[in-house]
Design goal:
- This protein is an alpha/beta fold.
- It has a single domain (4-256), classed as Rossmann fold (3-Layer(aba) Sandwich).
- 42% of the residues lie in helices and 14% in strands.
- The chain has a seven-stranded mixed sheet, sandwiched between helices.
- β3 (76-77) and β4 form a beta hairpin.
- It starts with a strand and ends with a helix.
Length: 257
């Protein structure tokens, strides 16, 4: 059966998008699913966040999307069972420029992934924090979208624009694209504002918000600097529990749909 492809997307930076993509990929792999994490962001934080640093001549996602390399030349194992990565690099900034003038530019990632869809149960795409051509490629390649939203004052800012983009892609390119859910991140239970944001998001996206809420936690912030997902870095922390629960929710929802 072909992989379920989930894009993690929010054009606002600093919402815990990459942290969420890494940790959900890791917990899905831990549960026995075969997982590929795609680092579509030119900052390549998902790649360094699991301890992978490419050399100057190493192939990366840019070579894969542009047809200069096959999947087997680019995909790396993360050192965890069932968990591979298609590593990103700053070259992806160049890819964004090159794609603008190409035909069928929105389909490049989708087309490139086609031969490997049967190898994985889940493909997780970490999109850049923008609504540019790379993010459009991530959304067009995906079946589902997860939107991380931080529990802070401007949480809902820009979300209507993202929703419009998803709707346009759904109407014009991939009718099957759906929002899997909104995940609330950086929640501080001591903070009244966090509680207010949770309430507001649940009201605005009724039935579309995950039960699991990710706390603001030191261990989650530290783990990427050690090149580890939270499951390896601090498996009994509150951040680890939250992401494990969220991964279980995602498995259940995608089985039901």
């Amino acid at each position: 059966m072909a992989a379920k492809i989930i894009a993690f997307c929010n054009q606002k930076g600093g919402v815990g998008k990459t942290t969420t993509a890494i940790n959900i990929a890791a917990y899905l792999a831990e549960s026995g699913k075969r997982v590929l994490l795609i680092d579509l962001d030119p900052q390549a934080n998902a790649t360094s966040g699991i301890g992978i640093y490419l050399g100057e001549n190493d192939k990366n996602l840019y070579h894969f999307i542009s047809g200069q390399a096959l999947a087997q030349d680019v995909i790396l194992n993360t050192g965890m069972e069932n968990f591979d990565i298609l590593p990103g690099s700053q070259d992806m900034a160049g890819a964004a420029v090159e794609l603008v003038s190409e035909e069928s530019r929105e389909f490049k990632l989708r087309q490139a992934l086609f031969p490997i869809l049967d190898y994985y149960d889940f493909i997780i795409i970490d999109c850049p924090p923008s609504l540019g051509i790379l993010t459009i490629n991530g959304l067009v390649a995906a079946d589902k979208v997860v939107i991380p939203v931080q529990c802070e004052y401007f949480a809902l800012e820009g979300l209507s624009q993202l929703m419009e983009t998803i709707e346009l892609i759904k109407e014009n390119i991939t009718p099957n694209l759906d929002i899997l859910g909104v995940v609330l991140t950086m929640h501080d239970k001591r903070n009244k504002l966090s509680a207010a944001v949770v309430k507001e998001v649940r009201r605005n996206f009724s039935g579309n918000v995950f039960e699991s809420v990710v706390p603001r936690a030191v261990a989650l912030a530290e783990a990427p600097s050690y090149g580890k997902p939270i499951s390896s870095y601090s498996s009994f922390s509150k951040g680890a529990r939250a992401y494990k629960n969220l991964a279980e929710e995602i498995i259940k929802i995608t089985q039901d749909k």
